[in-house]
Amino acid sequence: MHISHSLPTWVAAILTIGIFSFLWKDNPFYKFCEHLFVGVSIGYGIAVTWYNGVYPDLVTPLFRQGKPLYIIPLVLGLCYFCRFIPKVSWLIRFPMAFVFGWSMGVAIPATFQTSIIKQIQGTLLTPAIFARWDVLLWAIISFVGVICTVFYFFFSREHKGALRLASQTGVVYLMVGFGASFGYTVMARMSLLIGRLQFILRDWLGVIH
Amino acid sequence: MKFFQYLLKIDRRIIYIIMGLLVTLPLVKPLGLGVTSGPRATRLFEAVDSIPAGKTLLISVDFDPASMPELYPMLTALMRHAFAKNLKVLLCGLWPTGMGLAIKAATDIPPEYGKKYGEDVVYLGYKPGVDAVILGMGENIKNVYPYDYAGRSLDSLPMMRDVQRLRDIPMIVALSAGTPGYSDWLAYAQSRYGMKIGTGLTAVSAADAYPFLQSGQLTGLLAGMKGAAEYEVLVQKNNYSKAYMPAVAAMDSQSLAHVVIMILVIIGNIAYFVTRKRRS
Fold first, then answer.
1. Does domain B39-243 sit in CATH 1.10.287?
2. Partner-chain contact B69 A191, CB within 8 Å
3. A95 Cβ contact partners less than 8 Å away, ≥ 6 residues apart
4. pTM
5. How many CA atoms lie within 13 A of A103 on its CB side?
6. In chain B, how many H helices and how many E strands?
7. Nearest chain B CA: its distance from A194 CA (Å)
8. If you measure CA to CA, which chain B residue comes closest to A103?
9. Domain ranges within chain B, ordered by starting residue
10. Mean pLDDT of all residues in B146-168
11. Phi and psi for B245 in degrees, rounded to 5?
12. Residue B44's pLDDT is what?
């Protein structure tokens, strides 16, 4: 057993125990750790964004390199803060309109290509799939799943007869999907617990090597 | 009946203690259950393995310390694999809180293989504006990142002479804990520039990525700590590294915890249905 002599390791270990203490019951030490985490995260995020975004991409070109066009993003950015002044709060619409316009123009074609066209291509039963029986089987399962799940979300007609059969099959697929997501969620949470225990036992207490 | 009612009212802290002990014991005394690599991790490994020596692998560090146990072992294993194959590693990030982890990896791993910062590895840092950053990197990386994370000009870093834009990079691996992450690299880097993309994800978000794997948009997928362990095993099996493998070391605890949870779910359901039947 080789207990760490590093101050940051001790601080991290004590804060980890503080967060874990919530498992027993809510307490002031946990609340302190929680608030500290929120504060440090936001402070760190602001500092990193300033030094990696605002300063090199706005302050430097505008004030150090004398590029006057950068006044436009500065003014648009400052308009966000008008939200706090009721008389001029409407000015926030300008940067919002710019961001919405840019985001829609850029994101819609890209998302359509990635999440719709490519996904439909991936679901289609093409001649190449028939070359191997296992590939064909999985392709048919995927194909049936997509069709039936889409039918479950078809609300323009009452689910009766064939439509009911298809939508009920869709429900089965949805349940399998939810089960897989839940299983992965359990695994993720356990991984985080194991990660902290590895830190406590290895980095802090030196019990494992 | 009373037994089942007792089970439904059991203090959750007893379950926490049992779980804590069962997770801790295999870490101190490993059971040696072993890890086998699945097809998704193998596909990613083979894709990285097939990159010609001297070329660059881009790894996007899109996670924060909260996801470190799952994604940091993936980052170190990928870097070890790349350096063992004499690839150069370019790191960047879409999450501000991931900077410290990327700097740690860029500092700790290259010396194991005698690699130098600026020649074999560069960390570009974090830049806000996800879509603009990726699209800008597709045109000219230096327009988006004129300097690396420490303020060194990219022109002064020898590695960046051959890497001008995304198309100079054979493959991107996005290690993502959420959004922004692999979905943005797919939407902007792949749809626009045809980039080959693999990913490593937290287990929570892994199920959402399977459709992209099935459609061939993703070259490979590492899901959670298990995915990291699978990649670590592949790296070690091919004699690319002899370093400590934190994800593999955690797999005994993970397996034991899963068995306990499965037993608890089954017992909980039996107890619920038995008591419900009696009540009705």
1. no
2. yes
3. A76, A77, A79, A80
4. 0.92
5. 9
6. 12, 6
7. 7
8. B131
9. 39-243
10. 94
11. -110, 95
12. 97
